[in-house]
Fold this sequence. Notes:
single chain, mainly alpha, P1 Nuclease, binds zinc ion
Amino acid sequence: MKFCLKITLPSLLIVLSYLFLSGKKSIADTATTVSAEDVWGFYGHQKINRLAVFTLPKGMFGFYKKHIEYITEHAVDPDKRRYAIEAEAPRHYIDIDHYHHDSLTPFEYVPRRWDKATEKFTKDTLQAYGIVPWHVEVMQRRLTYAFKDKDFNKILKVSAEIGHYIGDASVPLHTTENYNGQLTGQKGIHGFWESRIPELFSKEYDFFVGQASYIEKPLDYIWDVVESSHSAVDSVLGFEKNLNNSFPADRKYAFDNRGNRTIKTYSRDYSKEYQIMLDGMIERRMRSSVVSVGSFWYTCWMNAGQPNLTELSKKELSEEEKKEQEVLDKAYQKGKIKGREHQH
Length: 344
Ligand SMILES: [Zn+2]
């Protein structure tokens, strides 16, 4: 969800003190700076991973349920990694509308297979405009191997992380160059759609989504997810534009207390109107994410020969694994994203 509008405390304080000291409430100028700090926010990603556990069949459910806290907590590691590693950012999105040619749609023009796509566009171009569907495929292979090797730590780690990337692929604004409304004067919409609205309203969503199912063609499946996300981009942007034009400007934003912080965000009334206009879109995208995540886990387990997960025992983290987690957490604390800012 991305998708990270992670604001560090110092930068937030600078913005807020400027606002208050200068006596200006230049809301439009600052909306993008402080609109969302948790981004599917952290909230959405964690919720999706957590709920996906309940889609699993008998042979998997016990193991995942037992480790549901890990699966939930580490749903956001890939976003944290964006603060540590340059190559991480493009794994979270694909600007599919960058690609067009004559009368072909981007989905007709871009080959679904990585090798064919690199032949046509080069790796550098693909990296520049995002690689989320192909990265899900990489993670799917990794998870299958983790199951085959009965590698307890890897199964949990890769399960948590593939859930994140599938969640990102399900977000319309992760599939467009106009990912934060920056090209249409709607800066801040990324966090608004994937963070603010779910935080306010997802308690009312229906998350009984049924069972995970086996995916015959994982690469096609994740491309279909991207395609369906992308088909919603016009609505996501268009509805907000209309709402912005009809809603009283002085009621669009509000200040919200989060612990000892105050952040500027879209007001509850404005959010509610947008949620009504979207007519259940975010709920549908979240629900389909949950099923997709469960189905990928299930498919990897099946393809690995349905290993008995009750036999697995936890391994101590290796020095290398500990170091990796440490680097990740430290870089995240420092709060400087390498690569695109407004994407998860
Ligand atoms: Zn992300």
